[in-house]
Amino acid sequence: MFREIRDIIGNGERFLITAHIDPDGDALGSVFSLYWVLDSLRKQPCIYLRDRVPYMYEFLPKPPQVFHGEIPEDQYDAVFALDCGNLFRVGDGYEKLKEMGPVINIDHHTTNETFGIVNIIDAGASSVAEILYRLYKTMKATMSFNVAINLYTAIFTDTGSFRYSNTNSQAFLICEEMTKSGVSPSYVAQMVHENHPKERFLLLGLVLATLETHKSDTIAMAMVTQDMFRRTNTSKEHTEGFVESVKEIRGVDVAVLLREITGSQYKISMRSKGNTDVASICNLFGGGGHRNAAGCTINGTIREVKDRLKEAFKIE
Ligand code: AMP
Ligand code: MN
Ligand code: MN
């Protein structure tokens, strides 16, 4: 299948590359690395991401133009959907993508719905970047610094800085190779973990004050509201890492963060440490993800959303 993609790239000219809304390090690093590989082959890649790049990923080398908000409608020789379990994860207008060119779906979510003409799904891969690395090797692409730092950051962030259960030997091998291409692990770690604006910590304080635990402190929940964003002059990009912080509590198996989108819609992020499969819980609400990290959107008032979550976790 890598050869099939290699041939599609070899025979084509124009490519659209996209990933999921609220992009994380893997979504961004994957999209940008593919851009630089295609650029080095003198192709015409174009990137669409519904949301702009969160401040913590602004250090990643990206093209001069990235499209946000509205999909650049055109005909492409292929449309790459990266890190998306379902095509709707690209955001509004995703239905049009299939008419704009053959969709190539490259992903590592267990809940992937194989929506592409070509589907490369490896739930054992730490990240999409790991799968792309294999593709680039098949293509004999040069691992320039711009490719290397994007792949490194994608793997570094999707493995929770090499802490989560998806941390495999490939993750280390690829990152080791990327350091040889000039990536400084301490620089990436600083950019990702030690570069937050003060406001983010004021927000974290408000969020931690909402912490509640259930089932003998094995399930922890916290909440972010639009009012908290207003009070601290922050936005959703400042919540990255919050659910992971809650997971750090000893004995907690599942951490849940509820983020108010509107008064009647909440984005739910779940992380688990042990055997609890949060992807299947999020799947109950039309979402998905991985065994230990998943998300979904639930409609309802905060009371209703909490009640539905408590029911899913069988909390009295
Ligand atoms: P998040 O909580 O948004 O950081 O997402 C955790 C993991 O679940 C990531 O791998 C996401 O791609 C995935 N995910 C989040 N929200 C959804 C959703 N609504 N549908 C499917 N997968 C999701
Ligand atoms: Mn992702
Ligand atoms: Mn990923």
Question: SSE layout and pairings?
Answer:
Layout lengths: L1 H10 L2 E6 L5 H16 L3 E5 L29 E5 L14 H4 L2 E5 L10 E4 L6 H11 L6 H14 L10 H12 L4 H9 L4 H11 L3 E3 L4 E6 L1 H7 L9 H6 L6 E9 L2 E8 L5 H7 L3 E2 L3 E7 L2 H11 L4
Parallel strand pairs: 1-2, 1-3, 3-4, 4-5, 7-8
Antiparallel strand pairs: 6-7, 8-9, 9-11, 10-11
Helix pairs in contact: 2-4, 2-5, 4-5, 5-6, 5-7, 8-9
The site of adenosine monophosphate has 15 residues, from strand 10 and strand 11.
- CATH architecture classification name of the largest domain: Alpha-Beta Complex
* Topology order in helix (H) and strand (E) letters: HEHEEHEEHHHHHEEHHEEHEEH
**Total domain count:** 2
Q: What's the CATH C level of the largest domain?
A: Alpha Beta
How many strand elements? 11
Main sheet characteristics = 6 strands, mixed
- Using the CA coordinates, give the radius of gyration: 19 Å
What coarse outline follows from CA principal-axis ratios?
globular
Helix content: 25-40%
Number of helices: 12
> What proportion strand?
15-25%
Q: Mean pLDDT score, rounded?
A: 97
Ligand inventory reads: adenosine monophosphate, manganese (II) ion
Oligomer: single chain
Q: Give me the secondary-structure category.
A: alpha/beta
The N- and C-terminal alpha carbons lie at a distance of 48 Å
